Task: structure prediction
Amino acid sequence: KQERTFIAIKPDGVQRGLVSEIIGRFEKKGYKLVGMKMINPTKAQAEEHYADLSSKPFFNGLVKYFTSGAVVCLVFEGKGVIKGGRVLVGATNPSDANPGSIRGDFCVDISRNLIHGSDGPESAKAEISMWFKDSEITQWNFIT
Ligand code: CMP
Result:
């Protein structure tokens, strides 16, 4: 089924020069990049994005981390991209992430885990509409 997911390259991913590596893995897998922008998230945006985690002890640190620098916001489209995107990203805790996944290959710390990916259809829908206006999602047109 064609679907869309929201992916964010967090400030550590940008600062470590991993933007092209991360986008490249999604592109080469065969997912279609339909939305892309770079922002400095506000505290309010980070709190909204991670609202489900507001009762966790690491919430304040997470908001601080996410707002600490530039973030690349992406929307990828493709067959099974929500689940498949999470396979590319790897387990939340980089210590559990398989080699070959982005977190498995590039990081070691759960509080500096490089990248976010929507964890299901509802969160994908909510996160895409939180970070992107409809008009910022592109259509690919092919010359025939
Ligand atoms: P992400 O996939 O963006 O979804 C929730 C985020 O919370 C997760 O990646 C981590 O960045 C962060 N997180 C989850 N568990 C912990 C933890 N135990 N300590 C610190 N940060 C965490």
